[in-house]
Write a structure and sequence with these properties.
de novo design (two linked rop proteins); about 70% helix; about 0% strand
Length: about 130
């Protein structure tokens, strides 16, 4: 498969599914959390896909890697917000575990993408291997 856009990246696709699911989940949170936990968890989950996209658009390996690292931080932040939701009784333990599993999967794929970018950054310019953005 050829990569022509950030939307072709497997990590972005998985993070998008997660983001949409979290948006649906937060609709069940109490109204008084609208500008608190609900807003925070939506922002952190949106930050994952947004930073992957922004990094891709930079067209420089090191900048792309840096934005992917920010996305990785947003994965961890999202998990923390989900733990708060569990602690407050807004979600049950199984829901927390399911989201934790999805976040771990996205993080693994993202780590693989970061490793790929770091390796591609080291390739000589005359190589046959063309990375998705250079």
């Amino acid at each position: 498969m050829s990569i022509h856009s950030f939307t072709d990246l497997e990590v972005w696709k998985k993070a998008r599914v997660l983001r949409k699911s979290i948006s649906t989940l937060t609709q069940k949170f109490p109204a008084d959390e609208k500008f608190k936990l609900t807003d925070q968890i939506k922002r952190s989950s949106r930050s994952i896909t947004a930073n992957i996209a922004e990094g891709y658009g930079r067209f420089h390996y090191q900048e792309n890697i840096q934005f992917c690292r920010v996305a990785r931080g947003s994965i961890t932040e999202t998990l923390d917000h989900l733990i708060v939701a569990f602690d407050e009784g807004y979600i049950d333990e199984q829901t927390l575990k399911n989201y934790e599993s999805q976040l771990t999967e996205v993080k693994k794929i993202l780590n693989g993408y970061i490793k790929y970018l770091a390796k591609a950054k080291q390739l000589p310019l005359d190589t046959d291997e063309t990375p998705p953005n250079n």
